[in-house]
Amino acid sequence: MSYCLNSTELESLLLLYLDNRAIENLTLKSLVDNAGGWQDKLLCLTFSFARILERQRSFVSLTQTMIPELFSMPEKMFIDIQECGEDFVDYMLRHEHSGEIDLEISLLTVARKLSEHCYGKETLRD
């Protein structure tokens, strides 16, 4: 199973590792535990991470530690950090984002679809 973290969930995960702050959301805690045991995959987008850094910009020392922490997480757990590169943005502009729903929700939906590969079915990766 794959689960896309929104910016609030990703921030909770980062603060767990950086500040030993407990995760209050039981569903998220279970997902993080499963990812730590390499059972379920978490997905995060650099877009969501950028939103966290923007919210925390007044805490310079925290944001400076968040960057290396995020990019070292694939060594600690089953997590896929997805860059919002040119192809991804182009796809979003042409197919997904209508402006009626939150951009982050649209991005998380596309990231989840991109991470899935169903044999015998056409997916976004085909």
Largest sheet, strands/sense/barrel: 3 strands, parallel
Q: Report, as a whole number of angstroms, the end-to-end distance.
A: 20 Å
Unreliable runs: 122-126
**How much helix is in the residues?**
55-70%
Strand arrangement, major sheet? 1-2-3
Structural topology:
Layout: E1 2-4, H1 7-19, H2 26-36, E2 41-45, H3 46-55, H4 60-72, E3 79-82, H5 86-96, H6 103-115
Parallel strand pairs: 1-2, 2-3
Protein architecture, described:
The protein is mainly alpha-helical and 126 residues long. It has a domain at 2-84. Helix content is 56%, strand content 10%. The protein contains 6 helices and 3 strands, in the order E-H-H-E-H-H-E-H-H. The protein has helices spanning 7-19, 26-36, 46-55, 60-72, 86-96, 103-115; strands at 2-4, 41-45, 79-82. It has a 3-stranded parallel beta sheet, sandwiched between helices. Helix 1 (7-19) packs across helix 3 (46-55). Residues 122-126 have low confidence and may be disordered.
Key phrases:
56% helix; globular; mainly alpha; 126 residues; disordered C terminus; 3 strands
Structure at a glance:
With 126 residues, this protein is mainly alpha-helical. It has helices spanning 7-19, 26-36, 46-55, 60-72, 86-96, 103-115, and strands at residues 2-4, 41-45, 79-82. The chain has a domain at 2-84.
